[in-house]
Amino acid sequence: IKKVAVLTSGGDSPGMNAAIRSVVRTCVFHGLECYGVYRGYQGMIEGDFEKMDARSVKGIINKGGTMLKSARSEEFRTKEGRQKAYDALRKAEIDAFVVIGGDGSFTGAMVFNQEFGFPVMGIPGTIDNDIFGTTHTLGYDTALNTVVEAIDKIRDTASSHNRLFFVEVMGRDVGHIALNVGVGAGAEEILIPEEDLGLDRLLESLRRSKQSGKSSSVVVVAEGDKIGKNVFELKDYVDEHMSEYEVRVSVLGHMQRGGSPSCFDRVLASRMGVKAVESLITGKSNYMVGLKNDVMDLTPFDQAVKGKSKINMELLRVSDIMTI
Ligand code: ATP
Asked: Residue 97 and residue 109: Cα distance in Å, rounded?
């Protein structure tokens, strides 16, 4: 291969810029040309490419978001759309691409590879950490730090007013963020998609916490928690059944995706970019790079997409013990 393209696709996450920088510089290091694709697969279809050199990616390692912009592309889901993307890549004489994104982006790359035999490599970029084949996705560590900081601030106001806060954090399918920030910020309870605590046990636990002399309580709720109520319904339920607390809700939302990447994410992004480009050079294709036992690893796209990322159940027990 001589020319490699890099794109960011799906939801953005902190560390994507650091990964773009790494892909570009690894290409330059190995004497390959590198092209940035703007706006994900949609920009690929439209041939929105820009040649990048080592200096094109200066000053971005510490920036959140993605300088290449991200997008969702309905057209890329169609055969005609992917044909257009292939034609645009061939016209620019690009012969491989690295996509930084989530499982949808990997599915797109896999289908593209099957259709055209085009070499592709993936870097997992999402704050949810919901991808099989890596212990950490890019942006996850930064999001944990952002959320813990936010909950610390909520705790300050909660304890000044004897309040109970339900704090909703991202995580529709997996509870990684909720579980870790719950332990990290000392939450009284953590509600995650993997486990149904049950409303009775929740009330019991909140009463116990109040009786033990606590002046505030924070319950971290993942978007997809299994208890089956959203944060506002939970507030109503607790209001109805408990008079001990004044209950408030805070939905953290998109701020969880922003901000300057943590050192961990910058280092991870740098390592993943090197691994992705060097794997393409050795003739590998259709893999996602990932971190396992602090070693860079490759997982075939089909496994990365199909597999389920599992939470660490030990953390639930740790949380229970810490809230005694
Ligand atoms: P996030 O998890 O942050 O949302 P993602 O990569 O999973 O990221 P998606 O919106 O699911 O985000 O996918 C990104 C893009 O990948 C889609 O807009 C589409 O262009 C492409 N894509 C997803 N699934 C397919 C598919 N089955 N076939 C072809 N292209 C796909």
From this structure: 9
